[in-house]
C-alpha cells in the first residue's frame, strides 16, 4: 500500500500529552515510590535541610523535571521530598 502524499502520523497535542503523563501519579506504582522517597528522606524537605532548616515535606519532586527527562521519572535518585513552599518555588522557576 502506497503512502498518501501529505499523510502524517497524528500528533498528540500538549494538553493530551500532559494528561497522559499526569496519570502516572494516580498509579499504585507512584504511591509506592512516593512512600519510599518520603521514608528515605524522613519526611523532611531536602531543600530546607540544605539551608540548615528542618521543615516537614509532603511533596515528591523530580530533581530533573520529568518533562525534560521522562526516562528518569521512576528513578529514586531523581526524586526528593520538598515542602509545599520549596516545591512551588522550584516549579515556578521552571525546574
Topology:
Layout: H1 14-22, H2 28-40, H3 46-50, E1 59-62, E2 79-82, H4 84-92
Antiparallel strand pairs: 1-2
Can you describe what's shown?
With about 100 residues, the protein is mainly alpha-helical. It has helices at about 15-20, 30-40, 45-50, 85-90; strands spanning about 60, 80. A two-stranded antiparallel sheet has the order 1-2. The protein is globular and about 40 Å long.
Estimate the global geometry from the Cα principal axes. globular
Low-confidence stretches: none
Topology, number of strands:
2
* Ends apart, CA distance between termini: 46 Å
Q: How would you spell out the order of helices and strands? A: HHHEEH
Percentage beta strand: 5-15%
Report the structural category: mainly alpha
What is the helix fraction of residues, given as a range?
25-40%
Supply the number of helical segments: 4
How are the strands of the biggest sheet laid out side by side? 1-2
Task: Offer a few descriptive terms.
4 helices; mainly alpha; 2 strands; 95 residues
Amino acid at each position: 500500500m502506497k503512502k498518501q502524499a501529505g499523510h502524517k502520523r497524528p500528533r498528540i497535542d500538549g494538553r493530551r500529552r500532559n494528561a497522559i503523563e499526569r496519570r502516572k501519579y494516580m498509579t499504585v506504582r507512584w504511591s509506592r515510590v512516593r512512600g519510599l522517597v518520603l521514608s528515605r528522606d524522613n519526611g523532611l524537605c531536602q531543600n530546607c535541610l540544605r539551608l540548615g532548616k528542618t521543615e516537614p515535606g509532603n511533596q515528591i519532586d523530580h530533581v530533573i523535571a520529568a518533562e525534560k527527562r521522562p526516562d528518569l521519572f521512576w528513578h529514586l535518585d531523581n526524586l526528593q521530598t520538598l515542602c509545599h513552599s520549596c516545591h512551588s518555588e522550584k516549579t515556578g522557576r521552571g525546574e
